[in-house]
Design goal:
Number of domains: 1
Keywords: Membrane, Transmembrane, Transmembrane helix
Structural class: mainly alpha
Helix content: over 70%
Order of helices and strands: HHHHH
Distance between the termini: 14 Å
Number of helices: 5
Strand content: under 5%
Amino acid sequence: MMINTQYRKIVRASAIYDLLVTAPFATPWTFAVVYQLLNMIAPVPPFEPTHILFVNLFGSIVLVWSILRIRDPQPIYGFYDSIGRALFSIWFFYYLIRYDINPVTWIFAVLELSWFVIQAYGFIRLSKQRV
């Protein structure tokens, strides 16, 4: 039986995952390291400063969202996060299939889809208990 406390732990765990995975994208200096690592696995096209700006913006906002969910893992945040993860999953799979981008992206796509399923399913179960 899914209870509020268990679901809050799921929301917090997904936030910790996000914090760890996206922190390297939040600054130009940390992204440079990630970019080099990805390039060692499979070629990555050159990034212009505008691309890096958007990577850093994405990384920064996900960090803020992660910290909010770590500090206050409300079930409704898990619901909204699952919606975001569904969208991320769609775009990951779209670009992987359509453009055959860096194969490391498959790992991120599967993890996003997994967190979507875990949080959405948990929220649905929690909501049914409250009725």
